[in-house]
Amino acid sequence: MQGTGPHRDKSRIRAAGLLIFFLTLLIYLPATKNNFVDVDDDDYVVQNEHIRSLNVDSLGWMFTSFYASNWHPLTWVSHAVDVALFGMNPSMHHLTNILLHGLNTLLVFLLALSLISRARAADRSIPVHKREGAPLLAGTITALLF
Predict the structure, then answer these.
(1) How does pLDDT run across 46-103, given as a tens digit for each residue?
(2) Do 135 and 120 meet the contact criterion of CB atoms below 8 Å apart?
């Protein structure tokens, strides 16, 4: 017999979150076979000397400079960490981005689940027995569309 209540809900949420995360990884994993792309990798990685090291000067540049028409220090820090760990191996840079996208997709799921659950809990016109499953489904769909 299946359990009911909060324990069952947490198990379903955990299972849905893991499914979303791993499905995201699975979908994007083929990108690890690609080289750097001409869209923006040249500017952000290949020709960007500022990400070649992680030191006070490079971190200062990352947080105070506009480069390639953008200011996005966390992107540059991420690329600098990739270079420090993996060199200029595009597969590992892509894998880092895939993992970050998987984590962000999981966060979108949790945010959507929380917002929808709170809105439904506050709506007294919805019968109690109909408030439970919809947020999980809606949060999952929202995350997968993300």
Answers:
(1) 999 999 999 999 999 999 999 888 899 999 999 999 999 999 999 999 999 999 999 9
(2) yes
For 130, counting Cβ atoms within 10 Å of its Cβ (0-12 exposed, 13-18 middle, 19+ buried), the class is exposed
Q: Measuring CA to CA, how many Å separate 101 from each of 55, 68, 131?
A: 26, 22, 30
**Domains in the chain: how many in total?**
1
Tokens representing 54 are 């992680």
Q: Considering the domain boundaries, does residue 1 fall inside one?
A: no
**DSSP letters spanning 36-95:** --TTTHIIIIIT-GGGS--SHHHHHHHHH--BTTB--HHHHHHHHHHHHHHTT-HHHHHH
Give the domain range for residue 15: 6-145
User: Are 101 and 28 within 8 A, CB to CB?
Assistant: yes
SS3 94: helix
Three-state DSSP class for residue 70 = strand
